[in-house]
Fold this sequence. Notes:
By secondary structure, the chain is an alpha/beta fold. It has 3 domains: about 30-70 and about 115-175 and about 305-375, 3-Layer(bba) Sandwich (FAD/NAD(P)-binding domain), CATH 3.50.50.60; about 190-300, FAD/NAD(P)-binding domain (3-Layer(bba) Sandwich), CATH 3.50.50.60; about 385-490, Enolase-like, domain 1, CATH 3.30.390.30. About 35% of the residues lie in helices and about 25% in strands. The protein is built from 15 helices and 22 strands. The chain has helices spanning about 1-25, 40-55, 70-75, 75-95, 95-100, 110-135, 195, 215-225, 245-260, 350-365, 395-400, 415-420, 450-460, 465-470, 480-490, and strands at about 30-40, 60, 140, 145-150, 150-155, 160-170, 175, 190, 205-210, 230-235, 260-265, 265-275, 275-285, 290-295, 295-300, 305, 340, 380, 385-390, 405-410, 425-435, 440-445. The strands form 5 sheets. Strands 1, 2, 3, 4, 5, 6 and 17 form a 7-stranded mixed sheet that branches. It is globular and about 65 Å long.
Amino acid sequence: MAMIARLLPNLLSAFRLFSLHLANQNSQKNMQYDVVVIGSGPGGYVGAIRCAQLGLKTAVVEKYKTFGGTCLNVGCIPSKALLDSSEHFHNAAHTFTTHGINLKDLKVDMKQMIARKDDVVAQNTAGITYLFKKNKIDSFEGVGSFVDKNTILVTKADGTTETLSAKNVIIATGSKPTALPFLPIDKKRIITSTEALNIKEVPKTMVVIGGGVIGLELGSVYARLGTKVSVVEFLPSIIGTMDAGLGKELQRVLKKTLGMEFYMGHKVTGATTKGKTVTVTADTPKGESISLEADYCIVAVGRTAYSEGLGLDKIGITVEERGKKIPVNEHLETSVKGVYAIGDVITGAMLAHKAEDEGTYVAETIAGQKPHINYNLIPGVVYTWPEVASVGLTEEQLKEKGIKYKAGSFPFKASGRAKASMDTDGFIKVLADAATDEVLGVHMIGPRAADMIAEAVIAMEFRASAEDIARTCHAHPTYTEALKEAALAATDNRAIHI
Ligand code: FAD
Ligand code: NAI
């Protein structure tokens, strides 16, 4: 008894400490913020940083362990890392001897390629952690959901919760791969882009469903490494939303350089897996059924806005039936005052730079400024080789709108720089208003088009004429001279080098 009496104070104190620990774990802390951002992708993290720069007390809620969303973790960055690696391999295998460089026993070390990609991702996601600290942004790991329009519940993986009070909320929850209802994704052989970034060996064969951006970028990665890639596309052309000339040229080059096969106008009807083989069935344009066997099938038929688990019903927001997008007004505010939405989860292009600009836009709106986004001038890029890039109106759109225009184009085969680097496929096309010469669209397929398109975007932001570009001095020899030449061709059909 005496012993128990002696130990009792210690036991009580240990019990008190344990209870306090439990209470802390389940506590409903109510922290106050000017802005709570749900989601840390390019929309969310840029929005949060801009809010903090403007002096707003800001928190970010992210359900994944690392920041950066789809873009940094399973999208833009890892896909470009693999595109760069596979491009090195392809060049070493196919163009080095022409350059006078002979290599023996060239091999792909897929594990190392994936490990380097993971390292690139880690560097980028760590960069966001650093930026959040630098800008004094609080971060909470867990699923964010609305209790009411000013209260966000954060539910962590272990089930514990925290509550945040917010004067304003920015929903930046992004998107997820669209699945075909008749084609279940098993994530092993029938996969999405996420799994395609982690295949640990070079497959012999691969079917890609969807000749859009993801299908062609990831298809290129594996085709460059030696995989026989077949693309099955529902529409008559690949990258169907871009200027028609671009898809036509890209298809020609990918077939020529990488041996990619294209099944255009084919309607996929199903896919089954047996052991390590996937069989994809599709209907041809004539209605006949074909089947394609492969080691893997990537389903890349678009992405769907992601707003599950947000508790939108609690604040009276209904998502659109088709595409599940959250409706917003011209200020990117939802039907609920003080609740904004940006990026892939709302209407418009599903692109990282569009999400980033919307993050900045909403932060500045909350801070009382009057920002602006020019949605007509959001560039689109496909990181194949040659790269494809586009801004403004396509020829098809100009015709549809009845706008009279002049077109000038310049092929890379006439560019000295492109000849030197053996990148002579592709062209640049400049479309200008027939009456005023204002540049209305620039469409390019060629070396480093992804970087070159910025010149066209800036020119168009300043409402340049084709002649303005044509009379601007471009360094020689550069790929950008092709833009000057295309502008010359559009101005007065006076390109110099063709
Ligand atoms: P996301 O980046 O999707 O981020 C949303 C975040 O919200 C995620 O981290 C998610 O975990 C989190 N989240 C969701 N719900 C909750 C919740 N309830 N609580 C807490 N957190 C939540 N775009 C380009 O511009 N260039 C490219 O080269 C490019 N390449 C791509 C390659 C691939 C393979 C893919 C799949 C996409 C690519 N994209 C590219 C598209 C780009 O990734 C997206 O447009 C961009 O990431 C959208 O940003 P976001 O901020 O709207 O959403
Ligand atoms: P996408 O919309 O670019 O292409 C999907 C393609 O699949 C379309 O051509 C469509 O016609 C086709 N398709 C749809 N249903 C089909 C079916 N049943 N059978 C055959 N084909 C079918 O979508 P994707 O490639 O999945 O990319 C999703 C989003 O990610 C895009 O909106 C894009 O903006 C973004 N992204 C951007 C990148 C970039 O900027 N470089 C890179 C990768 C993705």
